[in-house]
Amino acid sequence: MNANHTNSRAVAGQIAVVTGAGRGIGAAISRKLAALGATVVLCGRDIKPLQNTASEIAANGGRTESLQCDVTSVDSTQALAAFVEKTFGRIDILVNNAGVGAFAAPLHELTPEEWEKVLNTNLRGVYYCIRSFAPMMIRAKTGHIINISSLAGKNALPNGAAYAASKWGLNGLSYSVAEELRTYNIRVTVVCPGSVDTELSPHTGKNPNKMLKPDDVAHAVEMLVTQAPQSFVSEVLLRPTQKP
Prior knowledge:
Elements: H1 3-11, E1 15-19, H2 24-35, E2 39-44, H3 47-59, E3 63-68, H4 74-88, E4 93-96, H5 112-140, E5 143-148, H6 161-181, E6 186-193, H7 214-225, E7 235-238
Parallel strand pairs: 1-2, 1-4, 2-3, 4-5, 5-6, 6-7
């Protein structure tokens, strides 16, 4: 039996929470974790897309729960954590994937409302989720937190400064939290994909056939959660083979 198969089996029976699980990258990650045998708690602002993801997973024999959660509200994330603790008694994997974009204007033309929406979802929301779920992991002295960032957190993004700022901030948050939590045997990883073919942004002028697909990000998450316990990857940079 190879090591990867053995580690894959270790995911079976775990409890995973995925934010923004109704579509795109979040749905792909949820399907992957369910296929590995985890029970996946699907979270998002709108219940209908979550139910669609849940139905697809159930059709393949997977186990899920679907809960509305607004990551920009600490009351909402704490209610989610309370449900998970009451229902399952633990959380093994937290995937902070919920995110929004703003790519239509330079920063000086961006409205304060658009700025707040992007930063509150992409950065504050991760803080709220970690604040709500990390204590459960600390008590168990185990867990894996995976934050879905972007290569926009590494490179300049004209007309997307708010999005880039949120992802640069998320990267710094992730590296720092990793150091805070590793003493409790909790692994924290940030995944930075390049252009992914989703509805998040228009990707004007790019060839969708050359772009990353949500399943590519899900595959990276699979590699992370099936690592041997004595190691963790702190950062993944994921690029399309050909520039789109």
